[in-house]
Design goal:
globular, 11 helices
């Protein structure tokens, strides 16, 4: 399995993408930061707005993520998609995970994502045996386990300093876009969505930089939000604290019965935002997989339509603010 194959699959959605890429991937050697940067075709001749794009665990090398960023660029945003995994590349983790899953799924007769099998070859069994069911469940468990391991290591203390360095650097390099939009906008998918909520919230400096809050900070002055407005899709590990701290306008495209952004947290957060008159938008998409909003080659018309609607929702929110 080649690296390019892995790059076209998101572990949350197993969606395959096309390969028409507009932006470029570059590395700031001094700050040890990598980023995928994509711009409107008429920039800088026409005004643009600065958009921070925080990805899922597949990162900046994912073809799907790059295509998603390009869609925002085609709508007038100068998009900077930073590499949030400087300390532990998920790219390598995904390769290991998918290779292992491929082995397990071949035993179950279910080709793994991006396997080299003939696409016309179909495995079908209306009543799989118990052992086959077990093997398929084992494959999914192995996949979830690797993703959970990666998430556990990507702590706010590691990720937020990277985000803040990127914001400061891009505001300086693309000062015209930041000024034109009156600040920085942000979108986040899966893993990245949680950090968009953090940037849109009102927190003590320690929390904004990924440190645990201290008891003596209960009365201190809070700072934020860091962004002007944000939009997220199928957030990962979102807490009620993330929701109640929100101050900047945020739109959320959510998955019904999502295990990593529970209905309970979402609805409690909604009540808080409504009670406190925080501008927000929450739309729930039923019968779609976690990760559906990222560009992917879904065959189901219902998922394709949900993906289109989620992008329109997020884009419209950003343009309205």
């Amino acid at each position: 399995m080649s690296e390019s194959d892995v790059a076209t699959r998101a572990p949350e959605s197993d969606a395959a993408g096309s390969t028409s890429i507009l932006g470029d991937t570059r590395v700031d050697q001094g700050a040890s930061m990598g980023a995928y940067v994509t711009k409107p075709s008429d920039y800088p001749h026409s005004p643009s707005k600065l958009l921070l794009f925080l990805t899922s665990g597949t990162g900046i090398h994912s073809t799907n993520n790059q295509l998603q960023a390009d869609k925002y660029a085609s709508e007038g945003f100068l998009v900077v998609m930073p590499d949030l995994s400087v300390y532990l590349p998920p790219y390598q983790s995904c390769m290991t995970a998918l290779t292992y899953i491929q082995i397990l799924q071949r035993f179950a007769g279910d080709p793994a994502p991006n396997s080299s099998d003939n696409e016309n070859q179909v495995y079908q069994e209306d009543n799989p045996s118990l052992i086959e069911q077990f093997k398929m469940r084992a494959a999914e468990t192995a996949k979830s386990f690797v993703i959970d391991m990666w998430l556990a290591r990507q702590t706010p203390a590691k990720v937020l300093p990277i985000i803040h360095r990127v914001i400061e650097a891009t505001k300086e390099e693309f000062a015209d876009a930041a000024a034109n939009g009156g600040g920085v906008y942000a979108v986040g998918y899966c893993f990245g969505a949680k950090y968009v909520l953090t940037l849109a919230g009102d927190h003590p400096d320690t929390v904004l930089w990924g440190q645990a809050p201290k008891d003596e900070e209960e009365g201190v002055v809070k700072n934020g939000p860091v962004i002007k407005a944000g939009a997220i899709a199928h957030g990962t590990l979102v807490t009620i604290e993330d929701m109640t701290a929100l101050k900047a306008p945020v739109s959320m495209a959510c998955v019904e019965n999502d295990q990593v952004f529970s209905d309970e947290v979402r609805e409690e957060g909604r009540k808080h935002l409504e009670t406190n008159n925080v501008e927000h938008e929450i739309k729930v998409y039923p019968e779609v997989p976690h990760g559906f909003a990222v560009v992917g080659d879904y065959k189901e018309p219902a998922i394709q339509e949900a993906q289109r609607l989620a992008f329109d929702q997020m884009l419209s929110w950003l343009k309205a603010h």
